[in-house]
Structures are given as C-alpha cells and as structure tokens.
What does this fold into?
Amino acid sequence: MKLLEERIRRDGKIRAGNVLKVDAFLNHQMDIGLFNEMGKEFYRLYGDQNVTKILTIEASGIGIACVAAQYFNVPVIFAKKTQTKNIDGGVYTAKVESFTHGKVYDIIVAKEFLTSGDRVLLIDDFLANGAALMGLSKLVEDAGAVVVGAGIAVEKAFQPGGELLRAKGLRVESLARVKSMSEDGSIEFC
Ligand code: 5GP
It folds into this structure.
C-alpha cells in the first residue's frame, strides 16, 4: 500500500535492533485517516471471507482493528497481556515472546467471546518473528474456530515470521513489506 510506505519513509525512524518506530502515526499518535485506508484495504482483501470476529493484541493493534471492524461490521476482541502464571478458568491462553521487550508473557481471551462457529481475522501492527500471530492463532484454534488469515500493517520481511507462518498455511496480507532497513535511515520495500 503506497500510502503507508510513503508515510513510513517520511515519518518512520529506524532504531537499533531492527526496530522501526512509527510513533508519529501508528503506535502513539494515530492517523485515523490512514487507519481508515488500511481498514478499507483489509476489507478488500478479506471482505469475502465471512469474517465474524477480528482478533488483535493489546495495545497497538487495537486502533487499527477497530477502524477495520467498521468495514467488516463485526466485533473486535483484543487479547490481553498478563504476566500472571495463575490464570482463572474460562479463558484461552497462549505464550508469546515479545519482540520489543524480549519477555515471555501470557495472552488471554475469555472463552465466551470466541466460539467454534467463529471465522476470525487476526490484525496486528507489526510482523517480525511471528510470535504474536502464532499466539493469536493458537487462541482461535483452541476455541475450535477458524483463522481466515492475518492483516498486518508493517511486515519486516527480512525477519522470519512471514515466511514461517505462510509455510504453515496461514494467509498473511501485509500492507507494507520492508525488505531492508538500516540505522542510517535507508529503507527498501518489497
Ligand atoms: P513478532 O511477534 O512477530 O516477533 O512481533 C510482532 C509484535 O512485536 C507486534 O505486536 C509489535 O507490537 C512488536 N514489534 C515487532 N517489531 C516491531 C518494530 O519494528 N516496531 C514496532 N513499533 N513494534 C514492533
């Protein structure tokens, strides 16, 4: 999606450890006009898939998922992140290793919000090693529901997540795919 690529070129900042900061329009301050175009594009890609729920992960996926949901006209569920080991019954859980913080945490979704009849679209801001998407997929599978695919804003294609998940048969659609980037500010898209 040209609009997103141009915005990344203009306002993105490349940090050590292969981290792309997009706080000016996506991860802190949010450009809702841009989110709206992203939501429209996710709907163009997945609008024929009879999606019944959108599932994302707190915090940065929520805004994108909510705007997209207005096109799909379905509820958004966000998986909560928790550090607790003892989780009450009534939830689906998965372990996710955070790309940005390195910690492993549990994500949870209440069982009442994901059921076996659901067709779920996963949405997230970034795809790096794929841990977040794998955790979200597990929650859906544990519920006996179907993952129709994933909609990602920015995929860092030089990291292994995209290839790994596609090899497992997951449909992954990313609006901007970064082929390479370096701390001197240069960035190349696929
Ligand atoms: P993965 O689980 O695929 O390794 O990483 C995806 C998650 O890590 C996303 O939910 C996102 O919050 C975070 N993340 C990964 N890479 C980046 C990055 O370059 N920039 C930002 N802002 N977040 C990232």
Remarks:
- The chain has a mean pLDDT of 95.
- The longest strand covers residues 146-156.
- The first helix runs from residue 2 to 11.
- DSSP finds six helices and ten strands in the chain.
